[in-house]
Design brief:
By secondary structure, this protein is an alpha+beta fold. The protein is about 45% helix and about 15% strand. It contains ten helices and four strands. A four-stranded antiparallel beta sheet has the order 1-2-3-4. The longest helix is centred in the first third of the chain and has 13 residues. The chain is elongated, with a radius of gyration of 23 Å. The protein binds zinc ion (ZN).
Length: about 170
């Protein structure tokens, strides 16, 4: 097995850790012995048997400083309170830089079209950590909207659509 393959297996194990050896073996298409070897190498041996919240320690240690508790909780399928409790127990804190600049936004809507709006560029995040986009309306006007408003069809024009409807009424 190459170093690259080992790294891939270990990254996958860390990311999906509370899974069983059998599930890992099927997902990674390797034997259970190979899974056991890497679990041991990562120091995760026995963590699952103990049950409770200990099995999340490593994941919280790795992700908590740069990820909000609610996002991490959703990822792991446990509550944000549990995440915060684990973080307190193992003595780690959010990175203060993270508080100022929220979690990285991977999605990019530039080039997408929502109603009459074509998304032109990312303008940065608002105080709630939502990405704000500059959009060009079909009428030629430039407008700003958050990703959420665009994706849930709350923003489908610069406002000209609404005005036209009112005129027609
Ligand atoms: Zn318009």
């Amino acid at each position: 097995m190459t170093k690259n393959e080992s790294q891939k297996i270990e990254a996958y194990i860390l990311q999906h850790f509370p899974m069983t050896n059998r599930q890992f073996s099927q997902a990674l298409e390797v034997t259970i012995d190979v899974v056991r070897y890497h679990i041991k190498k990562l120091g995760l041996e026995g963590q699952r048997k103990r049950g409770g919240i200990r099995r999340y320690d490593e994941l919280v240690r790795k992700n908590y400083p740069t990820c909000s508790a609610s996002i991490l909780a959703k990822k792991l399928g446990i509550t944000p309170n549990t995440i915060n409790r684990i973080a307190r127990q193992i003595g780690i804190k959010h990175n203060p830089d993270f508080i100022k600049a929220p979690y990285p936004i991977k999605e990019n809507l530039v080039g997408m079209k929502y109603g009459k709006l074509t998304v032109q560029k990312q303008l940065g995040t608002n105080k709630w950590g939502q990405m704000v986009y500059q959009c060009l309306c079909e009428c030629g006007k430039i407008t700003h909207s958050t990703a959420g408003n665009l994706k849930h069809n709350h923003a489908i024009s610069c406002g000209c659509q609404r005005k036209r409807k009112q005129k027609l009424n």
